[in-house]
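note to self: dont lose this again. the chain is below, predicted strucutre after it. 166 aa total, dont forget to put it in the shared folder this time
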Amino acid sequence: MTIAAIVARNLTRGSVGRQWMAIRDMDIAAEIIGVNPLKAKLTAFAVSSFFVGISGALFFAVYLGAVEVGSAFGIQKSFLVLFMIIIGGLGSIFGSFAGAAFLVLLPVLLKAIGVDLLGWPTDIVAHIQLVVVGGLIILFLVAEPHGLAQLWRVAKEKLRLWPFPH
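---
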């Protein structure tokens, strides 16, 4: 999957990626500067479909071990993927990875704190996890729509300028 991330990162840094970003920001202005909107939208759709196909194949092959589409990928998995993207950051490659890591590690952390440390029942910890994830989604949608990726960028910039902020 890291090869796919490297390819996606290089695609977004090139001229094709700049066309996609121009179309995303304002398609009329992009057309005025010479971007063909039909071609840019079709290539964005084709490339994103390719990456979604690769991700789905890897999900079924590596994570599940077999292809059982009906029972393996329900509405809960769909929402989990959506929540990963929202929390990680909309429109960011790093954000997708950060959101996935966060939502995979959050239940482990809550279980370690709630069940092992505090001695709470596992069903209460599971419900607390749902409340925490819901609250984080609302927080990120309202306060920081670019998610963890933007927080990471800001933290890196502040650390880079740390001793002398001016």
